[in-house]
Design a protein that fits this description.
Layout (H helix, E strand, L loop, with lengths): L1 E3 L5 E3 L3 E2 L1 H22 L2 H17 L10 H23 L5 H5 L6 H8 L1 H11 L2 H12 L4 H8 L3 H20 L4
Antiparallel strand pairs: 1-2, 2-3
Helix pairs in contact: 1-2, 1-3, 1-7, 2-3, 6-9, 7-9, 8-9
């Protein structure tokens, strides 16, 4: 039995997603990775979140509703998984691998150099934003979504989106330039 999930995409209930849906997901991966990186602020955690998001999407593709955006659905999965991880980490505390601690000897020159670059400053500024502002700024400034699209993806009023992005840009400008816009 086959369920229609839009005009051009089909998902087979017993056999998983169709090739067309798989190709759409593959084409969307770079944008989804940028979104995951904005959420986690870490390449390692980003890759873990990306993998878990794609796995969840593929195993639950039948939950994707006809007439909705596959990309927005996957953004929402990534955001929910990220929130779940933050909550779990708050209960368990931060985990540290003992083997990694033994190899630490002092300041890493590579990290010091990266921190001095403008990109590193921008990443630090982005990471310092509250999640609600960082997520919206990632959708609009990094992924190129319109305010309206970001509002639809996150289920927020457009005024809330505009306000949060304005506050995020102001905060980043203060951190990077030491002055208001």
């Amino acid at each position: 039995m086959e369920s229609v999930l839009g005009r051009n995409a089909r998902v087979q209930r017993n056999n998983g997603p169709s090739e067309q849906v798989k190709q759409r997901i593959i084409a969307f991966l770079p944008r989804l990775r940028r979104f995951c990186l904005a959420l986690t602020c870490s390449n390692d955690h980003c890759d873990d979140l990306l993998q878990e998001t794609v796995e969840r999407a593929l195993t639950r593709i039948e939950q994707w509703q006809a007439g909705t955006s596959l990309e927005s659905w996957m953004f929402r999965i990534a955001q929910n998984l990220h929130i779940d991880r933050i909550r779990a980490q708050g209960r368990r505390g931060q985990q540290v691998d003992v083997d990694q601690l033994a190899d630490m000897s002092g300041d890493d020159g590579r990290i010091i150099t990266e921190v001095r670059s403008e990109l590193a400053y921008a990443q630090v500024a982005m990471a310092s934003l509250p999640d609600d502002q960082r997520i919206l700024l990632a959708l609009v400034a990094i992924d190129g979504r319109s305010y309206k699209e970001a509002a639809e993806i996150l289920g927020l009023p457009i005024g809330t989106v505009m306000s949060r992005i304005s506050r995020a840009r102001h905060a980043i400008d203060l951190l990077l330039n030491g002055k208001a816009l």
